[in-house]
Amino acid sequence: QITTLINHKDKPKRSDKTLQAIQRVGQAVNLAVGRFVTVGEAIANENHELKEEMSVACIEARRAGETIAQLTDVASLDHPESDSHITIFTDKTGVVKAARLLLSSVTKVLVLADRIVIKQIITSRNKVLATMEQLEKVSSFQEFVQIFSQFGNEMVEFAHLTGDRQNDLKDEKKKARMAASRAVLEKCTMMLLTASKTCLRHPDCESARINKDGVFHRMRLALEQVIEIVTDSRPNGESEMPPISIYSGIKEFKNKVEGLRENLYFLSKENLSTMLEVILEHTEDFTDSAYTSHEHREHILELSKQAKMELEQLVSVWMQAQNQKTKDLMEDLEVAILKTCQCMNELKREVHSAATSLAADLLKYHTDHMVLKALKITGVEGNLEAVAEYTCKLSEQKEQLVEMCRLLRHVSGTEPLEITCIHAEDTFQVTGPQIISAAETLALHPSSKIAKENLEVFCEAWESQLSDMSVLLREINDVFEGRRGEKRVYLSLPRPGKHNANLKALKPVKLDTEEQAKIAKLGLELHLLTSDVDSETEKWEDQENEIVQHGQGMSSMAYSMYLFTRGEGLLKTTQDLFHQAEIFATEGTKLAAALQAFSDQVHNDDKPLLLLEAEKLMAMCKQLQITAKASVQGKSATFTKVDACILKTRNVMTLLCQLLPLCCKLLRKNKAGNGCLKPAPPWRQDRIRTGTNGHTAERRTETFGIKSLEHHVTNMTFLESK
């Protein structure tokens, strides 16, 4: 509105419509400033140390708003000129000055308000730390229960403050670090409860004390990291050294090499050589690892050697081109650039394959949790010798998983995923010894129910982290294959100018804690269905098949809707959810059309079933679209609509779980030569001729990407429910 006023062009003739519009804009600015300042003044009254500064800024903002309203009050133009009333037409510089004062004072109010938020988080952290110190020193159950109740309330307050701050952070790296710290605090709160109770029950048990001390230490580190992120500072003024991955190193190296096309003199050959040396040093993490296969190790060493040779050739041509810029030399330079970049791409592909294949094998091998089960059984039996044997096996497992996380970090592809890998590594590193101390305590006190419960809690944390690793591995593969990137995940959110009608009709709101609790079961069912669909799509040999790609897109969107039920993810408001449901239904309709086209190639025995399922899918998607587009008002009606959208999405996903194996079976029949499909399928060819690439781009724009790092974090709702 201010920009509109300042950019207004003076004209000798001004219509009544123009005059009224200018006056309305001026009044609107003044009213908006008034509302803003009212909030600022209320904040000032609650925070005496900043009251004076805040009050001055609010007074300046209010004065500037009133000045703008006066200068745009054009009613006096109907009066005689002798009124000498100053307006935007007689003194445009006055509006410019008032606008500058307004913007600077509003910025000052925002900065002061932000300082207050930071202070609230620090104060909340200090309260949590003080109560933790009391919890460490308690000697009776009664006192512990009383203090832990206070601690729980303080942690809930801290969770709310840091959760809001996490959502407000613009830096994805900081957001990921905050999410990791909050995840630690959430899990450790339950661990602190059982570990402390175990220590109180068995005060002379050394392993119980070690177990408890480990939890307190980890919580303090997490609390400290939150404050570092919030205040943007490091202890003792240290500067944070970001971990360098092979992916980021290769990306930067290639950018420099390709930059030689534009400028032959912007960097030195020593600079380029040093960059390659750093990358190759990091590949030693793979070649030196006991868990890297012989084949991968040999390929990485060969590609490292080739990269050095390609760079030598590039430098040679580059130096010649600096002295003599002939056409032949520039062509040779282009070839050298292409060969160097190609070699780096192959190296990147090889380390990715080495890391992800190791991760897939380890996660599959440890999915039965046999060591944890054995520790629980032998602990209850009081068999110290067997517990010692299985703790050794758990230590071996921990080393394998830590190594897996280190290698995955190199190929994660984005900074938030790198931080997730580091967080996972820390979790395995810390949780392993804690499980061992909990198991030893149980073995020493086999009849202790609280020692048994304590071991269960730590084992659950381990299992939960393994489950998170499966999701993380899928995300890393998605980024590598270009299916999901850092920017694409935002594309299906409502954007100004694209969905204005919806944005005006519905006020975006968030679900509160009670509503999230009500819808949690439905969300969990949706989560399980996305896993089932992903498992089915992975069975297809042709991952480029249109049916598979539609299924993957729908699964990704359903996952983001599940995250919404937990108060996580990039769907922040109910309006975001409804828009996502519309896109999901559209994707389902496209899948139904693809199934109908596919049915034309199926012989009579199988065709009716496939057509019936396709029609059923089409009808369900239309119903979902109607529900998502329906206009509602009021909190209760909005929640009912949210519930209906997720319920209908779940029903579509259930049908999708049946459709995918059916289609896969028909395709396999055809490959086996059973004549299930007619030859030369025109439906596929027609689609290629009519622009498959355009369709894919459109679908990728609409598909809401799978979770970023923040999706690994919950909001401590279990404490609030207690």
TrEMBL record:
Any one Pfam family here would be Vinculin
Q: Which UniProt keywords apply?
A: Cytoplasm
The species is Columba livia (Rock dove)
GO terms (BP aspect): cell adhesion; Rho protein signal transduction
Q: Where in the cell is it found?
A: Cytoplasm
Source domain of life is Eukaryota
Q: Which GO terms describe its cellular component?
A: cytoplasm
What does the sequence similarity comment in the record state about its family?
Belongs to the vinculin/alpha-catenin family.
Single GO MF descriptor: actin filament binding
What InterPro entries has UniProt attached to this entry?
Answer: Alpha-catenin/vinculin-like_sf, CTNNAL1, Vinculin/catenin
Q: What is this protein called?
A: Alpha-catulin
